[in-house]
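Hey team,

Filing this mostly as a record. A colleague (T.K.) asked me to run one chain through the structure pipeline before their review meeting, and I want the input and output archived in the tracker in case anyone asks later how it was produced. No errors, nothing strange. Just documentation.

Input sequence:
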Amino acid sequence: MECPHCHQTLPFLLCSKCGKETPEASRYCAQCGTLIAPIQEKRGEGVDISDRTACSDGTCIGIINEKGVCNICGQPYTGDPS
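Output structure:
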């Protein structure tokens, strides 16, 4: 997801109903209006993180999302961090 003003990649979530991108901090999907999961679920509480894939950057703390990019810096996955 890209900021329309500065063109930086923004962290986003995929809506569970329509599958479209919506800003990570949203309470509702920007496309269809579906309520997004509570923040504690997005932050990993109650979620199994054992099979997550860390960002390839090596300095970023993000994880690779469903689209194959980091949820923090937006960089595509290129392999294990070096």
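Quick notes for T.K.: Residues 39 and 53 are 20 Å apart (CA to CA). The first helix runs from residue 39 to 42.
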